[in-house]
Amino acid sequence: MEYRNLRTLTHALLLLLCSWVASSVAVQQNLTDSAHNETKHIFKDIQSMHLYFAESCWLGYTRNMSTVNSDNWCEWHHINRHYSNLRICLEDLAEILNLAFPNNIANNYIMMGHRTYFINCTLPFQELADPPEHILLALILAPISIIPFLVTLVVCKSKTTKPHT
Ligand SMILES: *[C@@H]1O[C@H](CO)[C@@H](O)[C@H](O)[C@H]1NC(C)=O
Ligand SMILES: *[C@@H]1O[C@H](CO)[C@@H](O)[C@H](O)[C@H]1NC(C)=O
Ligand SMILES: *[C@@H]1O[C@H](CO)[C@@H](O)[C@H](O)[C@H]1NC(C)=O
Ligand SMILES: *[C@@H]1O[C@H](CO)[C@@H](O)[C@H](O)[C@H]1NC(C)=O
Q1: Helices 76-96 & 104-113, crossing angle to 10 degrees?
Q2: Which of 56, 75, 114, 115 would bridge with 129, disulfide CB 3.0–4.6 Å?
Q3: What is the CATH number of domain 44-131?
Q4: Is any atom of ligand 3 closer than 6 Å to the C-beta of 62?
Q5: With a 6 A CB cut-off, is 68 part of the ligand 3 pocket?
Q6: Are 33 and 157 within 8 A, CB to CB?
Q7: SS (H, E, C) 91-148
Q8: For the whole prediction, is pTM greater than 0.90?
Q9: Nearest ligand atom owner, CA of 112
Q10: What is the mean pLDDT of the segment spanning 100-124?
Q11: Distance in Å, CA 120 to ligand 4 centroid
Q12: Whether the Cβ atoms of residue 72 and residue 78 lie closer than 8 Å to each other
């Protein structure tokens, strides 16, 4: 009699434990889902912040370049400081937002600088200004191509932790 009671109690406790584990796994799944949603939301905000502040780096650069006579736009020692400042501005921005550098937004602005100011400069500078297309493409694609990989990793991981109820 005593023994049967004990067994029933054990069964009940075990059942309770199981349902508790199952529900906490479900809660965790919900938490993971909302974390994903949160991440998507934050990511969108970071992207727009990145665009906004990169634009202000660019405006600062054009303001600074406007102090240089256009006859001197191909003279490295005249534009060196401004060019470095633009790069530092974009690089610091990426660091603050915890993004890779170089990234495609920064590259766009640097390329825009080349097109706006250095397009008519002579060859030695031109080579410096326009890296070969395949290198440029690699620079742009490297940080982008890691995203699908990370997404796959996260999806696989959340699939394996899904409760089997
Ligand atoms: C998970 O979330 C859904 C909807 O957001 C809710 O109906 C469900 O009760 C939640 N499950 C747990 C275990 O919290
Ligand atoms: C996450 O977002 C999707 C759609 O954007 C929504 O259906 C889902 O309920 C959200 N999950 C949580 C836990 O907020
Ligand atoms: C513009 O010039 C100022 C003064 O030299 C410098 O502090 C600033 O970083 C420059 N901004 C950009 C975006 O080049
Ligand atoms: C480059 O040359 C073209 C044609 O001579 C001229 O219209 C343009 O303003 C020049 N651009 C720069 C940045 O010097």
Answers
A1: 160
A2: 114
A3: 1.10.150.510
A4: no
A5: no
A6: no
A7: HHHHHHCCCCCCCHHHHHHHHHHHHHHHCCCCHHHHHHHCCCHHHHHHHHHHHHHHHH
A8: no
A9: 4
A10: 91
A11: 6
A12: yes
> Token pair 């932790």 is at which residue?
161
In this predicted model, what pLDDT tens digit does every residue of 121-163 receive, in sequence order? 985 544 555 566 666 666 666 666 666 666 677 777 776 665 5
CB of 30 within 6 A of ligand 1: the answer is yes
* Cβ of 33 less than 6 Å from ligand 2: yes
Best mutation site among 53, 62, 68, 82 for ligand 3 pocket (most ligand atoms within 8 Å of CB): 82
At a CB cut-off of 8 Å and minimum separation 6, what does 140 contact? 102, 103, 104, 107
Name the residue with the closest Cα to ligand 2, atom 14.
Answer: 34
